[in-house]
Amino acid sequence: MGLDYTIFIDYGPKILEGFRLTLIIVICAIFLGLPMGVLLAIGRMSSKLYFRGPSVVVLEVIRNTPFMIQIFLLYYVLPFYGVRLPAMLVGILALALFSSVYYAEIIRAGIAAVPRGQSESARAIGMSHSQSLRNVVFPQMWSIVLPPIANQTLSSVKESSILATITVSEMTMSALAVQGITFRPFEVFIMITLLYWLLNESIAFGVRHLEKYLQTRRGHRATTERTAVEVESSLEAARRMTR
Amino acid sequence: MKFDFSYTVDAFPRLLEGAMITVQVAFLSFVLSLILGTVLTVLRSFKIKPINIVIAIYISFIRGTPVLIQIFLAYYVLPVVGIDLSAFAAGILAVTLNSAAFMTEILRGGLASVPKSQLEAAHSLGLRTWIIWLKIVLPQAFIASIPPLVNEFTLVVKTTPLLAMITVVELMRVSQQIFSSNYHPVEILIGAFSIYFVICFVISRASVVIEQRFSMRRA
Lengths: 243, 219
What we know:
Chain A contains nine helices and no strands. By secondary structure, chain A is an all-alpha fold. Chain A has a domain at 23-171 and 222-240: MetI-like (MetI-like fold), CATH 1.10.3720. Chain A is globular and about 70 Å long. Chain B is an all-alpha fold. Chain B has one domain (5-218): MetI-like fold, CATH 1.10.3720.10. Chain B is 82% helix and 0% strand. Chain B is built from nine helices and no strands. The longest helix of chain B is centred in the N-terminal third of the chain and has 41 residues, at 5-45. The mean pLDDT of chain B is 92. The chains are: A mainly alpha, B mainly alpha. The interface between A and B is large, with 41 and 42 residues.
């Protein structure tokens, strides 16, 4: 069975349209998921039980269940309570919720990586808890957490393919549609495999450069050897939970 | 419509049957990928250039593409090149190949934790290479990698519902079958959701226990 090149030409635009939607979904999910992740991280570290309790429950439940069933549940539960949203929006919401849990873990490690003395001094000069977080801890944390957060994008791109199961017309869905028309799985799946691979390799390339750039910039700052090792191991643990 | 818990209760026995298949699939893929991952790790440590390039491309491919696509490739594309597998076998193959790539990365970390001096000592005692691997390096590498390996097992469990897409009748597929005939998706999915949660939660908590047992042996 030879390759049928006409499929690439005839259905390429349709696949690329799916590729565009995949990108939009992932970008929306990142911008929605990050604030949720920050909130979950702060909640998780709060000393008050009514903040910490719900955060821990959300983190554990999302982390210990498959993404596919989370999407299905969201897709069927929302109409159950009278909320009717297009599949695309449900997909973005689900992906944002899913990623926020992993962002939260990374941000928690990042906050812990900022030396305690910093937030203590902020409190000592009269800042409130939230002020010290906003003005002292967060600005120092971003350069530490940015590479792992960018790395998380890889996983978001990959998870977004599962949105095809609730008929979101992203790249996997468009491939399945073309497959249904042409009955040529080989050409179709090769096409999207290469596109996903290319996209993810370029993101990984970008992340590596970002990492290097931030490392040389951070070099000037006084971080002790010990905290550097601790940061690395706690970020590694956060990274390990997803792939 | 109101949430009717009796649907969840009625469906529960069938959901549990599906869960048994899920656990079987996950366990089988996990064991196979552990074997494949170990073989790849050992191969890679010999530093033979062409082999390492092939392994690097394989890992990049697995990391760079969604599991769902890998499952589709195994089920829809392999028959085109003459390898016709059942849905079950194609599913196991895809999940195994996927997990093995991550397993190799995990074991590489475990390998790094074995002190170099032990290898030198073993060599100077005149032990054969395969004995050194089997008795000295691998056992320590495995014990050092227990937490990420257990985590990998939960990741495998969380990958299995995707096999429903290629008609493997595991927990996800069973719940789809049930709610497409009784039209109560929320009740049924909550049931399946809880079962997945219990499986993964128990496994991830078991990690602590396993680690303690082995750390006692190590001490």
